Amino acid sequence: MIKASSTIISLAFILGLLSTELPGGRIWPIILGILGAVLFSQLGISPQHKLQSKTRKKLQARHLPPLALPHPYIWLIASLVSLLAGFYLQFRLPQPQNNDISKFIPQDSNAIQAQLVIVRGTIESTPRLTRSQRGQFWLNADQFSEVINNQQPPGISKAVTGKLYVTVPILQSTGLYPGQKVAITGFLYRPKPSKNLNEFNFRRYLWYQGSFSGLNGRLVNILEKERPWGLWKVRQSIVKSHVQFLGIPQGPLVSAMLLGSKAIDLPYDIRDLFIKAGLAHLIAASAFHTSLLLDLVLGLTRKASRRTRLIVGSLILIIFLGLTGFNPSTFRAVLMGLAAFLGIGIKQKIKQLSLFMIVAMILLLINPLWIWDLEFQFSFLTISSLIITVPSINQRLQWLPRVIASLISVPLAATIWTLPIQLSVFGTVPIYSILSNVLSTPLVAIISFGGMLSAIFAFIFPPFGSAVAVVLNCLTSWLIYLVELVGNLPENYLSVGKITIWQLLIVYTLILMVWWLRWWGKHLWFAGLLVLISVTIPIGHSKNDLFRITVLAAEEEPIMVIQDQGNVTVFNSGNCGKGKLTIAPFLQQQGINKIDWAISSNFQYSDTNAWLEIMEKLPIKVFFDYSPTPETALISKAIHQELQKHKGIYQPLSLGQTVSTDSYIAQLVNKEIPILQMKIRGQLWLFIGNRNQSELEKLIKLEKLPRPQVLWHAGQSLKKLLETLKPNLAITVNANLRNEDSLAISKMKTQVFFTEQDGAVQWTADGKLEAFIQNTESRTSIF
User: Fold this and answer.
1) 616-628, pLDDT tens digit by residue?
2) Is 358 within 8 Å of 264 (Cβ atoms)?
3) Any idea where the DUF4131 domain is (predicted)?
């Protein structure tokens, strides 16, 4: 019999892994274990793990359920397990082997190497299309050789190991499949970490996958012509049958809802629609699908015997896992779902929860790094909601048919359990998420089951499978229309800012108290009010008192964000891609929902910028444009039109014209170099470009430049500018200075930040300066 002690020990192992990121680290689970031992020893737990009558009365007086609680020594064992979990995580951190292919990349490499190489190995995954329209797949490398030149054969092959992230031209990836032996000609590179807050960390992503390098491939040579049977063929036939009669995008969408978007090349415009509407989980073979399948099976087989329900539910989950291709995320979700379903079949809460926790612990023993994987976290929390919260919601929806109640309770419970994690990672709340999930779940359920039937028929007889898929055409079109409608609603996402780890713990503690304590379960409004207070008050207080200047790492153009007690200014946007991947994520993480002032000076003299990408996410009230030219007239017109949608103001500026707000005064004093100066709270900031080097040299010699407290410059004149202007702080991009210049700068009193290696730089009113990469490394215990 599985007892509560197994739940506590399993939970202790999970908390021990999580504690490696807490301030104070591993001491907290130990303290909790000791407190638990003291508390339950006072309650009078018997050696036989049975509750004494006095204890039962004490628990009932506190509205606690009369569970068979473990002996106090279990809490001490749990604290020891949590301590060992932290050491186990450190022991299992991925490390490249001595002959890993990443060892053949020079240590000082910061970019793709000019050295052409040939890497031989076995394809591990089905090729997928990236946003840059290149084919991507994983390769297990086994041989490596350098290409001296095109006239000579490659050098001596070396035996290597390692997992490579490979991208190749789309035509080169066509027809490739897992298990195939190939030789790829291209350039090896080291992945770069993120340089800005909330920016995608490519290095960490590869590290999670056990990979330490990438290959920018140019040519793929197939070494094996045979095409052995594999699950990739099954998936290929499923997708082909869906596309044949449903067309695009309906066909790929049905396949993605069945197999997950990781296994299907779903068009990115459709992916973005689902993400924008807060429905990204619908196109991922995720725990949501697992929970939905389980709850529907329970509803449809409620009159059957336990054995029948268990067999039917397990069979459906196994079929689902096979169709998705046994990818890790689906495997985790299905295994946890099977554990939850087995517990439900046994009809004992303590067994159900304990079994689920044990399976979660086993998965983390297999790979403890999954504890930081968002897919694992969402899977764990979604299945937890199925066990803990869905039954109570179904109880309150007894006036509805069982199936309809399940279609409402599953997305509602999943949202309650996963929203705190979303707040801690992204700092955003999808306003219409619960409504859109409830409205879309019936369609999703029918389409998923219809897609599964179509897939089975397609495998047996493809034309019949395609004919079945035709029935799904209308439903899929309605779903796309619903997603578009929700995604285009005003203010569909609210940025509240990232919550702290302590706020996260408070929210989940209240959720568990509502489930476990009878009084809290009867006073949901009070628990909800406490959650709202614990999240909003600290964030609101921080916004109203905050003054911060952030210079983002963005290549040759200065991009700066000024936050002054709720007022936000964005200075420059960089080239296309920076708005979507760098600026908007940073602003959303800070809880910013609008930009009060935007200033465009176009340091790079480019006819492309990222302002339209920013305005897709956040409205701008006033837009000041220092860079209107005949070449940029088209983009300026588009910006003007987008501003009018949100009643924003477009203000073109001429050279020397000032922009004055309560936070700063800005003025473009030179358009050719260019030079822009800003006075922020009494300090002069000077931004100097590098388009006209000769003119800049003249100004330096004549000493006609103002002396700032803070200097930004990305050119080769940094040393001369520092010697002449002597600022307190300097920010530049490229750290590749000449040795003599680097040595001379290091001896100066000016503090210099290189965004290429330090990342974004933040300055606060109290004079504190932080570089993003250094600050992140100092706070992170395992990465």
Assistant:
1) 888 899 999 887 7
2) no
3) 29-218
Beta bridge partners of 430: 493
Name every residue whose Cβ is closer than 8 Å to that of residue 737 and which is 6 or more positions away in sequence. Answer: 718, 719, 745
Lookup result for tokens 């009084």: 519
Partners of 167 in the beta sheet? 136, 216
319, 164, 322: which is closest to 233 by C-alpha?
322
How big, in percent rounded to 5, are the helix, strand and coil portions of the chain? 50, 15, 30
Q: Measured on CA atoms in the order 174, 180, 185, 191, is the torsion positive or negative?
A: positive
- Amino acid (one-letter) located at 289: H
**CATH of span 101-228:** 2.40.50.140
CB 600 within 8 A of CB 609: yes
Q: How far apart are CA 217 and CA 38, in angstroms?
A: 61
Task: Quote the pTM value.
Answer: 0.78
Please report, for residues 68, 92, 391, the alpha-carbon distance to residue 349 in angstroms, rounded to integers and kept in the order given: 12, 33, 11
Count of C-beta atoms within a 10 Å radius of residue 634: 10
For residue 163, the SS3 value is strand
Hey, what are 17's tokens?
A: 């892994």
Predicted confidence at residue 448, as pLDDT, reads: 77
Q: How far apart are the two ends of the chain, measured CA to CA in Å?
A: 39
**CA distances (Å), 347 to each of 395, 410, 592, in order?**
16, 19, 47
**CA dihedral (109, 113, 116, 118) positive or negative:** positive
- Tens of pLDDT along 469-495? 777 888 888 888 888 888 777 777 777
* 3-state DSSP assignment of residue 578: helix
Angle separating helix axes 306-324 and 433-460, nearest 10 degrees: 80
Mean pLDDT over the full length of the chain: 78
Q: Which helix (H) or strand (E) holds 615?
A: helix 611-617
Structure-block tokens of residue 555? 């290549």
Look at residue 216 and tell me whether its pLDDT is greater than 90: yes
Closest C-alpha to 570, from 600, 548, 543? 600
Domain 546-779: which topology?
A: Metallo-beta-lactamase; Chain A (3.60.15)
Whether the ω angle into residue 96 lies within 30 degrees of 0, i.e. cis, is: no
Q: Which pLDDT tens digit goes with each residue over 642-679?
A: 888 888 888 888 888 888 888 889 988 888 888 899 99
Q: Say how far apart CA 279 and CA 25 lie, in whole Å.
A: 35
Q: Tokens for 107? A: 């240590």
Report phi then psi at 684, rounded to 5.
-90, 125
Q: Where are the domains of the chain?
A: 4-91, 101-228, 245-418+432-497, 507-544, 546-779
Instruction: Tell me the per-residue pLDDT of 371-382, one tens digit each, with 9 for 90 and over.
Output: 888 778 887 888
- Tokens 């001596």 belong to 156
Distance (Å, whole) CA 634 – CA 613: 15
State the pairing for strand pair 729-732/710-713.
parallel
Burial class (CB in 10 A: 0-12, 13-18, 19+), 780: exposed
Query: The tokens 């932290």 sit on which residue?
Result: 86
In the chain, the amino acid numbered 402 is R
Half-sphere exposure of 62 (CA within 13 A, CB side): 11
CA-derived radius of gyration, the chain = 29
What single DSSP character describes residue 153?
Answer: -
Query: Could you give the CA distance from residue 165 to residue 167 in angstroms, rounded to a whole number?
Result: 7
Q: Which residue has the tokens 């898929």?
A: 469
Q: Alpha-carbon distance 676 to 559, whole Å?
A: 12
| Same fold yes or no, 101-228 and 546-779 | no
Mean pLDDT of 514-537: 78
- Nearest CA-CA partner of 586 in 777, 427, 372: 427
383 vs 684, higher pLDDT? 684
Give CA–CA dist 733/553, Å, rounded. 7
Residue whose structure tokens are 């298990």: 179
- Sequence-distant (6+) residues with CB within 8 A of 175 are none
DSSP, collapsed to helix, strand or coil, labels residue 405 as helix
